[in-house]
């Protein structure tokens, strides 16, 4: 099944649920991977791919398309599900995730020819720099397209993210939008325990960014927040999206141990049932 | 044998600067990024001619490398400019993940390589960069020998598909390659034909090898001198063809023996044509402060060292 672009929250809710379903199915089939973050980004990805992004699944190389860089490459399943449900490749291909010869690498790998994938990512701290390069190139060429970058909150502990943040403001990249998946957890525990990030909004403001904080599961709020900053500001924009790891599957919500785990087949069945209760 | 004429003296980085300006005029997709070393890399002329295509990134090399990859995704041909140590070791993961993996059109241009950086000392004298870069799948690695070759290489790499590491240096050195000599990526350049020993040289040591050839001729040893400017992909056919004639080899480079040109040639010969070999290179040491010429003497990268190595290796022939 393929979904088309929409701007009604009722439809986005159905799409987000389907993204979550595909994430659970593909990870259970793969037997390894990162479930927690892939689930918590489903609402953001539903809004991005089915509302905000200017893109054409039938013409993945369309020059004027908006670009999305998934800096946290480990949540690849949510990107793959969104691309498949947009029509870039058959939904059945999601079952090849992480398998030998698959176009769906464990972390996104551009060499494997997956339509709609813009870059190889996964080594944390580099995606915002890639996005700055894309946005700056578009600006130099007077193109209208926008660049969106998905960052993890734990990832913000990498110093190079702030090199990139500084440069985006310096080069006045109003065509750049970063989204921080603020789920408050990382592999070793909570971000406040491992390496605290607050005051996070103030940090971005101090680096010259326009900051919007919102509920990362509220489709209406996300549709409004994800619009790029407009001239004359020419300021890059960051959405600090408060999310809950594992969102949609009540029994694992907020549990950081699901950062790097995939469900077994039995767990997947149970999670899909929980998911159905939510979406009804 | 022919003696090479010195056409003048210049730093190879100035050849890069002129080449960058020229390729900028030829190709509107070329953009240049500098990490606060615009003047040191001689990128000023490009910055002045093409302000919209010159990107100052400040002292933030990690950002520069991934940014360059982003520019390449959007269709640009980015040239990054900083010192060789900041172009490689500091940013290895950015190059590996963002540039080498998926073969981006990024040209990593690295000045002040090797001991001949001189007085600044070991912190800045990287001698491991060729090895770091040649390990990366799909990375082309070039080390140029004079102003003209550096200029020609800078222009040539724009139309080469995929990532390139272009290594050059700081001091003024003799110019001896003709200005109209075409730069062919991946092809060894025959500088002098000979019969008794082949000297494969790269970078600043090419001129030293030519001088060694003159002395060897006086001693009755006919040296074939080949400039291997492209260390990867190595021109194996050229290497094997010469060695089949001469039967022994000296390699010469301003780099660690581990991971350098000598290491690549030894691997090629061990696999295809086992041959006695001597290597002129730094052997598992850091450099230090001093004048470039003093350092080349102290670390045994000088003309007499190449002569002695050639005499030794000729004696090892069966
Ligand atoms: Mg997190």
The CATH topology of the largest domain in chain B is Rossmann fold
- Count every beta strand of chain A, where a strand is a DSSP E run of 2 or more residues: 7
The CATH architecture classification of the largest domain in chain B is 3-Layer(aba) Sandwich
> What structural class results from the helix and strand content of chain A?
alpha/beta
- CATH homologous superfamily identity of chain A: Thiamin diphosphate (ThDP)-binding fold, Pyr/PP domains
Could you explain the architecture of this structure?
The complex is a heterodimer of chains A (280) and B (318). In chain A, 39% of the residues lie in helices and 12% in strands. Chain A has a single domain, classed as 3-Layer(aba) Sandwich (Rossmann fold), CATH 3.40.50. By secondary structure, chain A is of the alpha/beta class. In chain A, α9 links the parallel β6 and β7. Chain A contains 10 helices and 7 strands. By secondary structure, chain B is α/β, with parallel strands linked by helices. Chain B has 2 domains: 166 residues, Rossmann fold (3-Layer(aba) Sandwich), CATH 3.40.50.970; 128 residues, Rossmann fold. In chain B, strands 3-2-4-5-7-6-12 form a 7-stranded mixed beta sheet, sandwiched between helices. A 5-stranded mixed beta sheet of chain B has the order 9-11-10-13-14, with helices on both faces. In chain B, β10, α8 and β11 form a beta-alpha-beta unit. The two termini of chain B are 26 Å apart. The mean pLDDT of chain B is 97.
């Amino acid at each position: 099944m393929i979904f088309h672009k929409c701007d009604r929250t009722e439809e986005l809710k159905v799409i987000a649920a389907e993204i979550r379903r595909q994430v659970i199915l593909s990870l259970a089939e793969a037997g390894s991977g990162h479930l927690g973050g892939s689930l918590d980004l489903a609402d953001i990805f539903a809004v991005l791919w089915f509302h905000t992004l200017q893109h054409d699944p039938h013409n993945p190389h369309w020059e004027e398309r908006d670009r999305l860089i998934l800096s946290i490459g480990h949540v690849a399943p949510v990107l793959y599900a969104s691309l498949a449900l947009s029509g870039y490749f058959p939904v059945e291909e999601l079952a090849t995730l992480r398998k030998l010869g698959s176009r769906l690498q464990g972390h996104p790998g551009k060499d494997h020819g997956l339509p709609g994938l813009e870059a190889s990512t996964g080594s944390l701290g580099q995606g915002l720099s890639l996005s700055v390069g894309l946005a700056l190139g578009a600006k130099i060429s007077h193109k209208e397209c926008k660049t969106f970058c998905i960052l993890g909150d734990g990832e913000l502990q990498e110093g190079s993210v702030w090199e990139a943040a500084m440069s985006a403001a310096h080069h006045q990249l109003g065509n750049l939008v970063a989204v921080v998946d603020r789920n408050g957890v990382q592999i070793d525990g909570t971000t406040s325990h491992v390496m605290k990030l607050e005051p996070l909004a103030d940090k971005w403001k101090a680096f010259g960014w326009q900051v919007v904080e919102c509920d990362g599961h509220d489709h209406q709020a996300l549709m409004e927040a994800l619009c790029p900053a407009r001239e004359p500001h020419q300021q890059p924009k960051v959405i600090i999206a408060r999310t809950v790891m594992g969102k949609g599957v009540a029994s694992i919500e907020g549990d950081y141990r699901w950062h790097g785990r995939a469900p077994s087949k039995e767990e997947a069945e149970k999670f899909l049932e929980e998911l159905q209760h939510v979406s009804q | 044998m022919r003696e090479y004429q010195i056409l003048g003296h210049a730093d190879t980085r100035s050849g890069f600067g002129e080449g960058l300006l020229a390729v900028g005029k030829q190709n509107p997709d070329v953009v240049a990024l500098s990490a606060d070393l615009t003047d040191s890399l001689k990128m000023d002329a490009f910055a002045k001619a093409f302000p919209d295509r010159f990107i100052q990134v400040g002292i933030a090399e990690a950002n520069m490398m991934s940014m360059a990859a982003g520019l390449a995704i959007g269709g640009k041909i980015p040239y990054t400019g900083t010192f060789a140590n900041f172009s490689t070791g500091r940013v290895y993961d950015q190059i590996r993940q963002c540039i080498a993996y998926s073969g981006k059109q990024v040209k990593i241009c690295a000045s002040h390589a090797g001991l001949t950086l001189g007085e600044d000392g070991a912190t800045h004298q990287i001698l491991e960069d060729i090895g770091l870069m040649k390990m990366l799948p799909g990375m082309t690695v070039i080390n140029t020998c004079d102003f003209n070759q550096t200029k020609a290489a800078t222009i040539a790499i724009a139309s080469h598909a995929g990532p390139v590491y272009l290594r050059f240096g700081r001091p003024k050195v003799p110019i001896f390659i003709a200005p109209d000599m075409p730069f062919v990526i991946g092809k060894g350049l025959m500088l002098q034909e000979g019969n008794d020993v082949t000297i494969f040289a790269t970078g600043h040591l090419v001129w030293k090898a030519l001088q060694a050839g003159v002395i060897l001729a006086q001693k009755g040893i006919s040296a074939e001198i080949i400039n291997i400017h492209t260390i990867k992909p190595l021109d194996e056919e050229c290497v094997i063809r010469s060695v089949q004639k001469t039967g022994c080899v000296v390699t010469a480079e301003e780099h660690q023996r581990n991971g350098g040109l000598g290491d690549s040639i030894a691997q090629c010969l061990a696999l295809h044509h086992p041959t006695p070999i001597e290597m002129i290179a730094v052997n598992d040491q850091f450099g230090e402060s001093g004048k470039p010429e003093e350092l080349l003497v102290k670390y045994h990268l000088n003309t007499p060292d190449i002569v002695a190595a050639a005499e030794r290796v000729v004696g090892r022939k069966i």
